[in-house]
Amino acid sequence: MDLAENINSIQQRIAAACGRANRNPDEVTFVAVTKSQPPEVVTEAARFGLTLFGENKIQEAKAKIPLCSERLRWHFIGHLQTNKARDAVELFEMIQSVDSLHLAEELNKRAEQAAKRLPILLEVNIVGEASKFGYRPDKLRVELEQLNALARLEIHGLMTVPPWTKNPEEVRPIFRRLRELKEECERKLGARLPQLSMGMTGDFEVAIEEGATMVRIGTALFGERRKAGVGE
Predict the structure, then answer these.
(1) First-to-last CA distance in the chain?
(2) Are the C-beta atoms of residues 21 and 208 closer than 8 Å to each other?
(3) CA-to-CA distance for 184 and 31, rounded, in angstroms?
(4) What is the C-alpha separation between 75 and 216, in angstroms, rounded?
(5) Which among 48, 102, 152, 173 has the fewest CB atoms less than 10 Å away?
(6) What is the mean pLDDT of residues 111-131?
(7) pLDDT, averaged across the chain
(8) Selecting from 3.40.30.10, 1.10.10.10, 3.30.70.100, 3.20.20.10, what CATH number does the domain 3-222 have?
(9) Is the overall model pTM greater than 0.70, yes or no?
């Protein structure tokens, strides 16, 4: 594994995708997904300039994050159970996977107890896959104002995990629909939602072309794992 080479390749691909979409590469944030990677690998990635990392299991994050540099930033990108909300609030600067009002209310309560404000993304299951978590668009429309009323949470945008496919063009319509839903939510709230977290190793270039501001990349950075994780 040549991390420096992989990072450079990913950054070049991000820049090329931005070029095709007439976007500034500075508009796209690269989240390094470190599921199953030990602290030493995180430290090495940070040595090559990466500062934002994504984890999708609370127990793994609790063991790993304290062993890494305090200057690193961490986002939670996996399914979050309400009984892990307190740990999530303590460990992460953003929760990208808020998928219900019940979870949002628990995060709000824990953020209140911690005297902090918590940026979140609302996870959307655009096509209603039974195996995936996330709001269905219609339910999000119904609960959006209640979510926005939670005083300790800051809605920064939307996130999705599309169906897996060998051909990334097949998920382009899903990325487009998420962008359109974000724009609809902005009109409803009368406020800008700056973040669209969509795109992983197999499809991040298409996601960028459709407006992604965050891409979550694990495999292209660290190589294949025996068990691939959702959300990267």
Answers:
(1) 18
(2) yes
(3) 25
(4) 10
(5) 102
(6) 95
(7) 94
(8) 3.20.20.10
(9) yes
